[in-house]
Write a structure and sequence with these properties.
Length: 249
């Protein structure tokens, strides 16, 4: 039994919950961090995947609840979470198995008529967070494969909204991209991030010209090392220049 199901506390506020959407980039594709849900009545079987989430405790803030949930469900610490949307549709608990799981996991005599979930989002470089063990039953699931699996509650919609938010944020605040790249990166790596986020191929020449014209992307006097192809130039993100330019907008 993972920590989420073991932590039953009568001071839970079962009308309010938090869900954490951690989107990772593994240098190839976008992945979302999911956990397996214990199936009601059978602790050895697993029903649909779900986002790390839980009702909040009466004595904790929403932000503290999100941090606690992520550690309890996945073991991940030091992840910067941002609150991004509330979900409170009247049919969130339309599936009987979702209701059964809630009642069993949290020791409820009955399920509340309405549960509002506050969702949090994080966009991370996946290589920094490899330590997912069977203790937490957490796994990185490719976003491209989500159509092939069953997800609990309205978590498919929450994930879809989170990815849309990342796409918007990248256009408004480009520095997000450089948080998931190595400190020194190639133009190919940078383009791969943009193509993965937007789900489409970009014109190589136009992209290269656009990026190299940005003053906060600095070409280094270094080339890739130990690669089977022609070594490409390395670049870095100049945060100081970026902040100065953004401050002048």
């Amino acid at each position: 039994m993972n920590k989420e199901s073991a932590k039953i506390n009568h001071s839970l506020n079962v009308n309010v919950s938090v869900d954490c959407v951690v989107i990772g980039f593994d240098d190839k594709e976008l992945n979302v961090l999911l956990i397996k849900r214990l199936q009601a009545g059978d602790e050895k079987a697993y029903s649909p995947y779900k986002l790390p989430g839980s009702p909040i405790y009466m004595d904790e803030s929403l932000d503290d609840a999100a941090k606690r949930v992520l550690v309890d469900c996945t073991g991940l610490k030091y992840v910067s979470l941002e609150q991004f949307r509330a979900y409170g549709e009247i049919d969130r608990l339309r599936r009987a198995e979702d209701v059964q799981w809630l009642e069993r996991t949290h020791g409820l005599a009955s399920t509340p008529e309405r549960i509002v979930s506050i969702s949090y989002i994080a966009f991370v470089r996946q290589k920094k967070f490899r330590q997912l063990t069977e203790t937490y039953q957490a796994t990185w699931m490719p976003v491209s494969k989500l159509d092939d699996i069953d997800l609990a509650f309205d978590h498919r919609q929450i994930i879809t909204d989170a990815i849309r938010k990342i796409r918007r944020d990248v256009e408004v605040q480009p520095s997000i991209v450089f948080e998931i790249l190595p400190r020194k990166f190639t133009m190919l790596q940078l383009r791969a991030v943009y193509e993965t986020i937007h789900g489409e191929k970009l014109d190589i020449r136009n992209f290269h010209k656009k990026m190299t014209n940005l003053k906060y992307i600095v070409q280094l006097d270094e080339l890739e090392k130990d690669v089977p192809h022609r070594a490409a130039h390395l670049y870095k993100f100049d945060r100081v220049v970026y902040k100065r330019l953004r401050g002048s907008i």
